[in-house]
Specification:
This protein has 15 helices and 51 strands. By secondary structure, the protein is an alpha+beta fold. The protein folds into 4 domains: 172 residues, no CATH class; 61 residues; 310 residues, no CATH class; 143 residues, no CATH class. α4 packs antiparallel against α5.
Amino acid sequence: MLSVSYAEDSSNLYDNTLDEEFNEDTIDSDIPIDKTDFSSIIYTLDNNDNQYDDLEQSENILEDEVQIDNVATTTSTSSNTPKVTVNNITEIRDNFLNITMSSNVNGIIYYTRNGSMPNSNSKIYTNGQILKISVKTQINAIVITNNGVISSVTHYQAEQIITPPVSVVVPLTDLVDGKQTITFSTNWNNTTTYYTTDGSNPKKSNTTKVYNNKSFSLSKYSILKYYTKDNREGYPSAVYNYTTPSYSGERPTLTIYNTTRMYSNNVQRVMIQSNQPTTIEYYRYWGKNKVIHKKYVGEIETTKNSQLIVTGKHKQTKEMASSIEYMPTKGARTIMNYTYTLGIPYQNGTVYINRTDGIRLNNAYSLFKSGEGILYNNRTQNVTISKNMAITEPGLLVYTDNNLNTLYIKYYGYVYGDVNQVSVISTTDLLDDFSLPTSFYVVVNGKIQNMTHIILNEMKYLSSKTPITTSFTSNFLNYTLDKKDYLNPYFTDDTMIPFQTLQSYVLTNRIITKTDMIQWMAKNTTYNTTLLKSTYGTFLTGLTTLYLNDEVSKYYGKHTNITFTRGQDTQVLIGVNSRGRTYSNIYDPTVGIVLTNQPNINQTITFRFITTTMLVEWERQAIRLSGQNVSSSSYLFYKDINLEQNNIKIILDEENGILTIEPISNATYYITIDLETGITKIIMNTEEEDLIKGTLSFENQGYCYHEDRSNILNDYLNQFFGFLNSDISHQIFQDIEGMIGSGAISAGMLVALLGVSGGSILAPVLIVGGVGTCLHSVGVNNLHKFSNLYYWAEAAPSLISGFAVMPEIRAVSGAAKLVKIGHMSTYGTKYAVTIGMGSAVTSADSLIIEKYEDDIITEPLKKFLRFINVPGEEELEAEN
């Protein structure tokens, strides 16, 4: 039964542009492969050749148990005493069931439905007649025999299993001027919904209102409570709560409500609610059956072993909701999808699409040349030919580019929860003929799964390195994390290189807290193999990066009167490349943080500039906590302009509002600032000619994540959190302010406290100082297209003070005088000026760190900070 919507215009409740039902298999036009007909392409291992029996595959959904339990019935017995027997022939559904009646003698059955006593004037029951009754119905029946004998009264009332009506809120608008327009949708006809907006119980409150089938406005600060009553039988639902979005444009939040219990044929019904005007769709997976994809328009049926995956898109902003999986046996839980694509040079060899079936690449050449791919579906365990190179549920897709130069292996998977690990790690075995088969594994929250196994001709006999490309995306994000690397011509071994390539991704949709960190740190001992431990350490490094960023963002949010949340999914990559270098890569410098209180432009620019500029230092610090020497673009900038006194070029693109800082003597980094938003991207060029927004360690330092690096990181974090009763932003800031005076704390102090050098403070100081110098030099007050350019030029001192509040730090930053040298050049809508240092600050590290250490009263904390600190200039000397 579809729900009835009591909106003024029900046609606007849902966007019904999708067909009512269609199958993914039909859309993909996939053609099943008979492996006997494709024996030249698909090679199947014997059981004895299976190398992956000890690894767990992705969990598949079981086929439905279409088994109907026996329905209890009342049977008649032979007796001389006349008797009526009532038989319930269906189970109770929606408060109704079907019954029949019989007697043990020949005669006429008379009955009533209201509990009154039956007689010869009552309703006559026809033999075999099916009566539909409610659970409130009271049947009284007698039989009068052909001889006129009247039986005793048989009383029957069904078991009192009550199913009330259920309503969900249907938002018609986003939050507009602090209000949202909503209506209700109910799964039954002939019902009434009662509600309050002051948080009181509508079943008891004197402020209860009756919903009149018209939309109404709900304030952001109101607490809506409501229930629905069946008008015919009077059954009331439970009281449900609803709150509006906390800010305009918030991504939708989906909620699934059971509307029935699980019936004997394993069927249950549910309704779906969003807190935003949302186009809701769902996918139903059931055993090996075809996927059902529908637009949600009302109450839907599911079965015991079916998997529902529900998605939603904001009708105005097109922002995607977090997907929800629902299974009656497991309930509702957040589900994230991810796609990992591996690219390798096309060559002869074999690629395995599951544990036993491999593709002979030389024999598949003509198939790939025709623009088709080979798809393996984990759930159906079928191999199909893919026409459109799409993969929409867990499995593996193999295809090539148009010119057949590159072979792509695309893996699709699921992960559950809102803070998740997805790691990809590869190993190479040395076989008797000295060939090197390479195995790729996926580790999802500590569970290892086989991804693929490849044997490439180019990898045989310890030949040269094989270049690869990787790409990762998840949860409908409109960007990918891309990385180039190589497969080494070496076999992996714990004493040499414990893995070939390693990439760990943090997937999350919320702010990371101390509780999250403690929970993941406690899992250290459960990652008890070389591969698992390596993925754990790199994942924990990424999680630490987010934690430090989020804590400093809390402080600067307070400093700039900004409230925020992680309103979008974010991805953080920590990996180890073929040279053993640990690297970080974060595409989005805001890491999904959304400002929720509509700050003004000055507040926004200040917050965004400081937090995005400092992010690269949190990446660097997180890697350093495992005992590695790390370089970053901001530190290279600090070294370039401050220590080596090289000149840099600052280019203003007036048309796009982008300011770019480029080195003149060092081509390994550049910095861009969006002058409209304040968002900074600090880019590093790697040896693989990748442009990453991140950091890079020295060679061979990342290989030890399988043991020492992970343990050191965990130990340092445990020591650090041992000094905290709460998150950094709550305790460390308060403690230090108490020591050295209220308001003195800054992100610069936190940087120094965590052992990062003075360059981490001076780098953003020099960046914003350079911005101000450049904008003044081009006559910023004459550039009218971007109203905030003048703010940038005038704001340099206040932005600098955000990094350097202490008098000692102001003295250091004040000594770092940026002066314009050369003349401004103009080409098109771009202006460029070359600047350099008027005076270098070579004592920044020792002055800043020693000052902060002196201000720390607690000796254990001081000792700890000295213990983990590796001064930045020593890093530079080591790098040189």
